[in-house]
Design a protein that fits this description.
Largest sheet: 8 strands, mixed
Structural class: alpha+beta
Number of strands: 12
Radius of gyration: 21 Å
Length: 417
């Protein structure tokens, strides 16, 4: 009894020591910008154009330092990141109160140390994993596949205290557009069910798929696999399926119109429930936007660095140098990736030659570059399935703010101190 009392007292003391929130704004100065640039040590094509950003209130209720980082190699161009310099203590509470992370946000594990590793880590823009944010007990939490302690914490409560999140230093926050309060309430319920019942779901009904190049969507556009995710969350024990992290996030968010408290019968029926709706159109390997930059254009899984390089509008020699940098491999950096990502990089290596030709053609510009880029784009898309890789959510934000296919906005990048 005494031990419980002591634990309670210390728990209350810890809760009371959370820093008080105050009004803060994203700002920048030369010294801070240089410090952030040194800590990140990333190429300019790991950043985003300002048009990717969600419009935020000028003043934000947080004690964390907010920095508007401009990449020095952008040379005056509007390319950088919004940095939230956050302490780990009380993180979920502060994010909930500030609104910097909200239910339904996609949390992308960002690893600057991947920069310069070669085509695969560079085209992924340093992104290794995707989780989904939700709100519980007044704080932001997360749910990730694998639904295990390594990713969701020893108590499986998604409090950013798992071994994976403890060693992670940077998180990109991406927000799906137009989520309603009702949809967020549904997401909160689904996420809580997956964590509360993780031991009954993982790996019996849902297991982890380390092959990020094998999405369910291309062969199952009816979204039966999303129905099975929902059925697993309702403990209906559907046939087992393997999902990679961003595929689970996509499926969870595609359940946003389904109330888990009242839709059990729909998930037992033969048909896919009508409440299931894709959160984002899966991306093809390449799109039209880097070539044309029109409002109606699409953007592809491999287009991130290319879209940045084209947007910089540098002289040909500098453009060619940046393209070459994307495809220059450093084996020491590749070893920093997980075994799953290393295997995928190896399996995709035959495509990188075609992709380099595509980058060269589009980066050259002009009519010739547009025609050649279009031809190479078609050839690449025939060999790579449409996908919702972790990086795809970030890449979607690179489309014009009023673009027909824009479905995501970039909020900020958490940098744990």
């Amino acid at each position: 009894m005494m031990m419980r009392l002591v634990a309670t007292v210390f728990g209350l003391a810890a809760a009371l020591t959370v820093e008080p929130l105050s009004a803060a704004e994203f700002g920048s100065d030369a010294k801070t910008n240089a410090e952030i640039a040194k800590k990140l040590n990333i190429p300019v094509y790991f950043t985003l154009p300002d048009t990717a950003r969600l419009e935020l209130p000028k003043s934000i209720n947080t004690s964390d330092k907010l920095v508007d980082f401009h990449h020095p190699d952008a040379k005056g161009g509007n390319y950088g990141l919004r940095i939230v310099m956050a302490k780990r203590g009380g993180f979920g509470q502060r994010m909930a109160k500030s609104g910097l992370i909200q239910t339904g946000d996609i949390l992308l594990s960002f690893r600057p140390e991947w920069a310069g590793g070669g085509a695969y880590p560079n085209i992924q823009m340093g992104i290794s994993h995707a989780g989904t944010a939700f709100t519980r007990s007044g704080e932001i939490r997360h749910v990730d596949n694998p639904l295990n302690a390594e990713f969701n914490g020893s108590g499986l409560n998604g409090s950013f205290d798992s071994s994976d999140y403890r060693e992670l230093k940077f998180i990109h926050v991406i927000r799906p557009r137009d989520l309603s309060n009702a949809q967020r309430a549904n997401i909160d319920q689904w996420a809580a069910r997956f964590l509360d019942n993780a031991g009954k779901i993982y790996p019996q009904d849902i297991e982890f798929n380390s092959d990020y190049n094998a999405p369910k969507y291309p062969s199952d556009k009816s979204l039966t696999f999303v129905k099975k995710v929902g059925a697993a969350g309702l403990l209906q024990h559907p046939p087992k399926q393997a999902l990679f992290c961003s595929e689970f996030a996509w499926s969870l968010l595609s359940l946003r119109n389904c109330d888990p408290g009242s839709s059990s019968a729909a998930f037992k029926a033969t048909r896919v429930p009508s409440c299931i709706s894709p959160i984002m159109t899966p991306l093809s390997a390449t799109g039209d936007y880097p070539r044309r930059q029109w409002r109606i254009d699409t953007i592809g899984l491999a287009d991130g660095p290319l879209a940045i390089i084209r947007g910089l509008k540098r002289p040909k020699a500098e453009t060619d140098q940046l393209v070459a940098q994307v495809f220059t491999e450093d084996p020491a950096v590749l070893k920093k990736m997980s075994s799953g990502h290393q295997q995928l990089a190896k399996s995709l290596s035959p495509e990188f030659g075609k992709l380099r030709s595509y980058y060269d053609a589009v980066a050259s510009g002009g009519i010739t570059g547009t025609v050649l880029g279009s031809i190479k784009e078609t050839l690449i898309n025939l060999s790579v399935p449409d996908n919702y890789s972790p990086t795809s959510y970030l890449i979607n934000t690179m489309l014009p703010a009023n673009g027909r296919h824009r479905q995501m906005d970039y909020v900020a990048t958490i940098m744990f101190e």
